[in-house]
Amino acid sequence: MADLSDPPAPPAAPAHAFELPRLTSMLWHALPRFVEGVIAPVAVFYAAFVLLGLNGALVAAVTWVYGGIGWRLYRGHGVPGMLLLAALGVTVRAVLAAVTGSPVVYFLQPTLGTLLVSMTFLASVPMRRPLAQKIATDMVPMPEAFLRHERVHRFFLRISLLWSLVFLVNATISLWMLFHESIGTYLWVRTGLVAALGAAAATVSVLGFRRCLRHVNAEPAT
């Protein structure tokens, strides 16, 4: 017989409930990757470009990428497949830029890639398979019951549209500056604008997701 003096057990959480990790912990998790993948390559390329010219900058850019891979291997860490693909892409871009003698060639490919990413986000919306959801679940595992919720699905559709627009603006700014400004102006002004645009979109995404969470978690279990 149950002990009547025991306090009643708390009600079970709904199957669709989900708790988002603290925003500060996510930012600290993402900051080193942002510095390594966005800020440092620009600084390395530009410093070498000023001191050593185009070929020196290309060598420095390739060395930075493969140095990162070597450092991971030295520390016994696995090398992500995406990093290996990025290294291959940087190598091909550097060779093409060295052959043509134009730094524009080096930066044109990732800009066109950004445009392709924008179109991919956009195409995922009418297909009802929002790319934003796939990326979010890669970063933060979420229960299937939560992801099947209609409000959650609508949220990821809207966020996919938002990021499609962000990448489209990113590519447009990059292409215009690449053909109308100096490489120095392109590197720093474009990087700052793109970082600010991405930060604003990320803030909207996180705040919108938190709002969605409050509504979903407040619903009673069915």
From TrEMBL:
The chain crosses the membrane at residues 38-66, 78-99, 105-125, 155-179, 185-209. It comes from the Bacteria. The keyword Membrane applies. NCBIfam families: VC0807_fam. Keywords: Membrane, Transmembrane, Transmembrane helix. This is Intracellular septation protein A. It holds the Pfam family DUF3159.
